[in-house]
Write a structure and sequence with these properties.
The protein is α/β, with parallel strands linked by helices and about 350 residues long. Helices cover about 45% and strands about 15% of the residues. Strands 1, 2, 3, 4, 5, 6, 7, 8 and 9 form a nine-stranded mixed beta sheet that branches. Helix 7 packs across helix 15. The longest helix is centred in the first third of the chain and has 24 residues.
């Protein structure tokens, strides 16, 4: 029979460890994210200040994080996975990593086309055409299809066809115009290239400013980032670069997203949903978007970003994010056939 001393010792351990466990469950959240913007920091400190819940953040590239989640399996400490691009979020979903989330608040605040049953978009970004102001008129680049027009032979710069930003644009074109027309577009674009695809979106903007090409594709936040850059030379180079919202007369400019979902193996499921709901509230929406020069998904959130405002209002494509995911594989096939490496 155990002695009284041993019993009281065991009781002591039990009472000491129970609150610790409860506290760990309530007060901590682990986030795997490929968003690497300093301004996001404000989001987490604000959440902690409001709720007392600490956010442990692990940043890496999307592919590394996905590999890590798969490798860690049931012992994965992450509650949430956050990344950019609909096709990438769709890929995580296809791997079965996300748990279904049903939240009235998320459904009310995030437009239906910007969420699925498992992941939610929290900001949007547009894929725009940038052009050399000296050599090209805005009227010549009204549509993505202009990039495939022989008038721009040897004048187009673009990043890899395997990059999710281009794949999501390809997916949108497939959804609106079908496979054959998207194939024609990709073939025409490749035939117009000024150089083999390389570098980032920012590199394409710089190439236009340097006169290496006359037109290019880039996400809107890269344009805004250069416009608001602390470096004088960045703001100078943007004086040579014009920006158009493509397809204003058609379906509207292609819009991609940044988003997040709760992992199936999340140790703190309820807190993870609470964090997503927090991200959909007005103030964090404004940080989340403005920090990286994006737009909030929630209508009531304020946009206070002079660089974005300077680009003017535009009509955004209203395509459902699930369509971007659904067509990504076909878009890749089309780009491969076109030789868009
Ligand atoms: Fe980016």
């Amino acid at each position: 029979m155990p002695s009284f001393r041993l019993l009281s010792l065991l009781a002591g351990i039990a009472s000491a460890s129970a609150p610790t466990l409860a506290r760990a469950e309530e007060k901590e959240l682990t986030l795997y994210t490929s968003r690497h913007y300093e301004t996001d920091e404000k989001l987490y400190t604000h959440f902690t200040a409001k709720t007392g819940i600490r956010v442990k953040r692990i940043e890496d590239k999307e592919d590394e994080l996905l590999e890590r989640i798969k490798r860690e399996g049931a012992s994965c400490p992450a509650d949430l996975f956050m990344t950019v691009d609909a096709a990438r979020l769709g890929q995580a979903d296809a791997l079965g990593l996300f748990a279904p989330v049903s939240s009235k608040l998320l459904e009310e605040r995030i437009p239906a086309r910007l969420r699925t049953g498992t992941w939610f978009a929290f900001s949007t970004r547009a894929r725009v055409i940038v052009f050399d102001r000296l050599r090209v008129k805005a009227a010549d680049v009204r549509s993505y299809f202009d990039l495939a027009d022989p008038k721009f032979k040897g004048k187009v710069c673009v990043r890899s066809g395997g990059h999710p930003y281009n794949l999501s644009l390809g997916s949108a074109l497939v959804a609106h115009y079908g496979e054959a027309k998207t194939q024609q577009w990709a073939n025409g674009l490749v035939a117009n290239l000024a150089r083999a695809p390389k570098g980032s979106d920012t590199d394409q903007i710089r190439a236009v400013a340097a006169g290496e090409c006359q037109v290019a594709l880039a996400n809107s936040y890269y344009v805004a980032r250069l416009l608001r850059s602390a470096k004088n030379e960045d703001r100078e180079l943007m004086k040579h670069v014009g920006v158009v919202w493509p397809d204003q007369r058609g379906n509207g400019t292609h819009v991609n997203v940044s988003g997040a979902g709760v992992l199936k193996t999340a140790p703190h499921r309820d807190t993870a949903v609470q964090f997503l709901e927090y991200l959909a509230s007005d103030e964090p929406q404004a940080y989340f978007a403005a920090g990286n020069n994006e737009w909030p998904v929630v209508k009531t959130a304020k946009v206070d970003n002079p660089a974005l405002t300077s680009l003017g209002a535009f009509k955004a494509d209203k395509l459902d994010v699930t369509m971007l995911v659904r067509n990504a594989g076909l878009a890749q096939k089309i780009f491969d056939r076109a030789g868009w490496r």
